[in-house]
Write a structure and sequence with these properties.
The chain is mostly beta strands. The chain has 2 helices and 21 strands.
Length: 293
């Protein structure tokens, strides 16, 4: 038994000292968040420092005029899969390190730099940044202990990226170019589809819903559908595709597109005139329209 003690002690030391580094709890753990808007992927990767009871984070922890990566340790990065705008200024597709100057006496500026392999203490000079964007800020928000990025608002052509730490909030507007830009059609191109259709949907009992009226009209070069649905009329816009007689239905609100369906609508055209249309989902007809006039 005595002879085995050295081996036991060595084993215990190995267990205590030999734990992998990545199992340790760090003061500022790494985090990431991603948001997809109309096929454009926006991803932020950042260190997450904690307030730990410290007041006036901006002005004391993050000093005045400091070029600070909004996070901790390795530089916070923003990656966009397609060209976007940030605060109305163009930012090409790619990956960038992010830097912030939060001078309490002047406008806050968010910077982007092409080098993403930077440490927080090796920050670039403002003059060397690729893009500088003035950003608003508020110091009256709800207290957030751990620095957090999120996307509180998302629309078809915008996403709000928000930084929160302590009671400070910094919103950043990211503009997204539509993947299916609006294409005006000529009166000749629209003519085959214009008219009134009777539309049905699948019913819970396996049959079809009562027929609803859909009028397709020429709205200044756009193919507009107005459906007499229960409540108030539903407005749609049919976006042309490269496939003949195939359109992507987009829902409208206040005359603007707010959602595009992933299921296309295919029109049956005979002798230059549409006789009806259908949208298929999982091999079954989801929506069926038959021409009335």
């Amino acid at each position: 038994m005595i002879a085995s003690r050295p081996l036991l002690i060595v084993s215990l030391v190995a267990v205590v000292l030999g734990r992998p580094a990545d199992a340790q709890i760090r003061a500022s753990e790494r985090g990431s968040i991603s948001q997809t808007v109309d096929g454009t992927v926006v991803t932020v990767d950042y260190g997450r420092p904690q307030a730990r009871g410290r007041d006036s984070l901006f002005g004391t922890v993050v000093t005045r005029d400091e070029v600070w990566t909004p996070g901790a340790n390795a530089a916070t990065t923003l990656q966009v899969s397609r060209d976007v705008t940030v605060g109305g200024k163009p930012l090409p597709a790619g990956k960038y390190s992010m830097w912030l100057v939060s001078d309490p006496a002047s406008e806050w500026i968010l910077y982007f730099h092409r080098n993403t392999a930077l440490w927080h203490t090796a920050h670039p000079k403002p003059a060397d940044m690729m893009l500088a964007v003035p950003v608003p800020h508020s110091t009256t928000g709800e207290h957030v202990e751990v620095l957090t990025f999120d996307f509180p608002r998302v629309s078809p052509m915008h996403a709000e990226l928000r930084l929160r730490w302590g009671t400070t909030t910094v919103p950043v507007d990211i503009g997204i170019a539509p993947s299916s830009p609006k294409i005006a059609m000529t009166a000749e191109q629209l003519a085959p589809y214009l008219g009134t259709y009777g539309v049905t949907f699948p019913a819970p009992n396996g049959g079809r819903s009562p027929e609803m009226k859909l009028a397709i009209v020429n709205a200044k070069g756009a193919m507009r559908g107005i459906m007499d649905s229960p409540g108030e009329p539903m407005e749609l816009e049919y976006l042309p595709t490269t496939t003949p007689h195939r359109f992507m239905p987009a829902f409208l609100k206040d005359g603007k597109i707010f959602d595009v369906e992933v299921t296309p609508v295919d029109f049956d055209v005979v002798n230059g005139r549409a006789t009806g249309f259908a949208a298929m989902f999982d091999g079954k007809a989801w929506i069926v329209g038959k021409r009335k006039n």
